[in-house]
């Protein structure tokens, strides 16, 4: 079956431009995560959805970052007035069930969107 | 504050020998630990995991060991194969599934 897909795969933006990054999770997956991976670093958590509800947005670095998942499927990460420090790979992951607290549900990652802000 | 640390940025191992990748963590609340493998231009792929109530989990050539008192885990790959060359990330979570990753170790298997 199809895995997690992300588009675009590469995005070059001029400083100050707004960008929108799309994630199509695996069909039926309840949970959706966004991570930011800077060069030479591990992925860092940005935000988490369970269906359409955004349950955790503690990792969003500023109010320029906004994420939504209005119908509990496709998600969009929007970055307003991009700055050079926003340059990174943005990874989306989905998992089949909500947080259970007692067992772990594997996260399946997409290939990421590489954002370069000039 | 780096809660999950991988202190070796890179590791080279001869094909057929054992590869040992190490990871340390500081947050005692973590109750589940994972290893992900990443090839260039692809997303991380889940490899193996371990619950905090266990000290060892094995899956084929891959074994993960957890030492809770030392807040240390390791991934053993034996025998190492050329296709194992990739970046390996250690990750940890508690309850809510949000993953905290280390900075990764680039493993190169030498034929």
How would you sum up this structure, described in words?
Chain A is mainly beta and 118 residues long. Chain A is 0% helix and 47% strand. In chain A, β7 and β8 form a beta hairpin. The N and C termini of chain A lie far apart (37 Å). With 111 residues, chain B is an all-beta fold. Chain B is built from no helices and 11 strands. Chains A and B meet through β4, β5, β9 and β10 of A and β4, β5, β9 and β10 of B.
Question: Which helices and strands, and how do they pair?
Answer:
The complex is a heterodimer of chains A (118) and B (111).
Chain A: E1 5-7, E2 10-13, E3 19-24, E4 31-37, E5 44-50, E6 53-56, E7 65-68, E8 75-79, E9 88-95, E10 108-109, E11 113-117
Parallel strand pairs in A: 2-11
Antiparallel strand pairs in A: 1-3, 3-8, 4-5, 4-9, 5-6, 7-8, 9-10, 9-11
Chain B: E1 4-5, E2 10-14, E3 19-25, E4 32-38, E5 45-51, E6 56-59, E7 62-67, E8 72-77, E9 86-93, E10 100-101, E11 105-110
Parallel strand pairs in B: 2-11
Antiparallel strand pairs in B: 1-3, 3-8, 4-5, 4-9, 6-7, 7-8, 9-10, 9-11
